[in-house]
Fold this sequence. Notes:
By secondary structure, the chain is an alpha/beta fold. The chain has 14 helices and 18 strands. A hairpin with a 2-residue loop joins strand 3 and strand 4.
Amino acid sequence: MGSLLEQIRAMRGKTGAAAVVGLGAAAVWVLLLAVVGAIAVAGDGGGGGGSEEVAATGALPGSSSSSSSSSGDTTFTTTATGETIPGSPTVPGAADPSLPAATPGAPGAPAAPGAPGAPGAPAPQQAAGAPSPSGGDTTGVTDSEIRIGLHAPVTFSGVPLNLAEDPITGVRTYVDHINANGGINGRKIVLDIQDDRYDQEGARNSAQTLINDHKNFLVSGTLGIDQIATVAAEAARRGVPYVAAGGSEPSPIAGMYQLSASYSTHVQQLAAFMAKDPKLSKLKKVGIVAVDSEFVRPVAEEFKRAAEDRGFEVVAIVYNQKPAQNPDYNGYILQFRQAGTEILVPLTDPLTTQQIVQRCAGGAACGWTYTFSNFAHDSDTALTLFTPTWVQQQVRGLSSACYYTAPEVEGGNCGAMKVAREQWIAARGEEDWMENGSGGAAGYQIVSFLRGALQEAGRDLTRERFRGALAAYNGYSDLVTGPITFAGSRNTMHGAEKMTVLEAQSGNKYKMITPGFVDGF
Length: 521
């Protein structure tokens, strides 16, 4: 068996979700919750009325030639699979507070040859700040446009993947819907999406491009907490509003607004669920596999305490290396087996979970079952990676959104999932929703979370007014998650609290077994 990257490259030509090897946004956030954001946008259309600038460091999965086309106001660029598009240079310490301070919107470091804005390269459509009656910061805003930047692991250290494709399509679809219906207070959204490659170099490049070079009004993260932290630090240093999902509340990321549920909420709810679930409550020895990150280690400890408070024994915590670092998956499995693990809880990316699941199914005879709470494990694409084991075990876990095909979506206990579905079907058809809505609905969460505060900030849109509108969220509910409240609290890492319970089924689909959202267990 070759290296993991070699395996991924070998699978790139295969079609269908079963061939996907990747990281959920996600997250997919993910992202992926999901999980969202992307770069080189495939020329598969995206509806008219949107506007998207493409400047990336990798090709979108499935693209096979270099070309440009347009549909309405939206410009698409495709590149040869595996080809690297020159992006902005790596800026050592781009998120380092020791760098000289700069006023919001100040020019960044000079671009490398071939990068956007470099001599001989097409200049990005920079948005000069429109004058504000209140005198606030209007960087990224013109009389007709609002520039919004996103970063996501569209590639895996440069290898194209398609796990983020549905959430990316979702962001574009819902932005197109807004733009086609008059925009936000008369302004259309211009998307600027960059590939952070699920590594720190990619995150630094994304921060430099989105914040300093292209001067977006705000920036959103998607999947990969280390990448989120890197970009968030540069955004905070430059005075740029930043939103993302995940993270630990006891170890907050400065300046970040939570657009979904925090990792802390997920693990607290998961421990409570395990204690009530008929099958899981009979098992007591818990193993945790968590990505080796300073932002996830506190979450693993939070979960350990919460599980032990409910009578479970955490017998092993393994902090895994990221997939590109050639982790010792067999060694991880051995640690869990020696500890007598009965329930394995992944607080890591879906690719790591897949490698463990496959090795156990291939003869390791692990003997444990699994449970989860998000970490991009609640999408159809992620479930495909875990079959047939998860389907055979009918693995149950938590999601912060209703399942996109659940009949309960028609009722009043699934947030805005019905609205997300209706807008998607209007733009792309019902068959496309049934195929891609699992990840695509994540796009609604991001877009609507931003839209509420942008709308409330009014025509005199400044970064100060936008932050104020976010901080005033009090049960904001135009989301596919439960409501989010920031009003009256300085904890902007705490987001949605409600959960649903999903159970793995045949056909690589989940079944929602709660009647929509539940407050707790």
